[in-house]
Amino acid sequence: MFLPIILVLSLLTGTGCAAMLVMATTNPDQKVRDAYMLFDQQYRPLPAERLIREAIARYQTRNDELGLAEAYRVYGFFFRSAALEKWQKFYESQGFYETNATFSNRYEKSIEYFEKSAALFEKHGTYDKLANVYLNMGFTYEFANQKSQACSAYKKSLIASDRFMKDHPGDLLNLPEGYSTYKEYIDRCLEENGTCPHFSTLLPVSIWYVVRNYG
Fold first, then answer.
1. In angstroms, rounded to a whole number, what is the distance separating the alpha carbons of residues 159 and 162?
2. Which of 50, 59, 130, 139 has CB atoms 3.0–4.6 Å from 160's, for a disulfide?
3. Are 137 and 152 in contact (CB under 8 A)?
């Protein structure tokens, strides 16, 4: 089992200190934010996954579906993050808190959690975040070299974005440099048969959100 092995390793290698310098909190929103920072900026996926799962459990208890959708979205980012590459040997031998996750099926797990997130955001009509989830689902399919699935995800992202902009015509999108509309950005991806051009430069888009124009 994963957790007992972690306990043994903490005694031998110091991984029990993995969550040091992370402020303890019972707020699931903060847990999700802390988790993202840990795996995305600090390459510390071990405490990050624990925080995500704690947040998921809290959201489920509170029946907070939008909070749960966000936690699922971040779990999707987690499973395709570069931090896992750094810890590849560890995960190959010890596994994840998610018991059926493996290093080799991490992209499948990323898609699984993006799909869970998408279902909830769509249920609640949160189309800006739905567009973001489908965009990143496409990115994960790119990592997995599944080009046709990536194209499908990008098209769904554009549909969700169009729906959001129809409902909020005064809002603006934070777009990658060099693109004036989201459709232009998605069209470029589709023109490349599902392979995003200069893929590494597009990764920061994983955290874009709609920038509301209240003026």
1. 5
2. 130
3. no
d(CA 139, CA 159): 17
CB 14: neighbour CB atoms within 10 A? 10
**pLDDT exceeds 50 at position 16:** no
d(CA 122, CA 119): 5
Residue, of 89 and 198, whose pLDDT is higher: 89
Give the residue ranges of DSSP H helices in 63-209: 65-79, 82-86, 88-94, 106-123, 127-143, 147-167, 182-191, 199-202
Closest CA to 2 of 130, 113, 91: 91
Q: Is the pLDDT of residue 161 over 50?
A: yes
Residue 196 has pLDDT above 60, yes or no: no
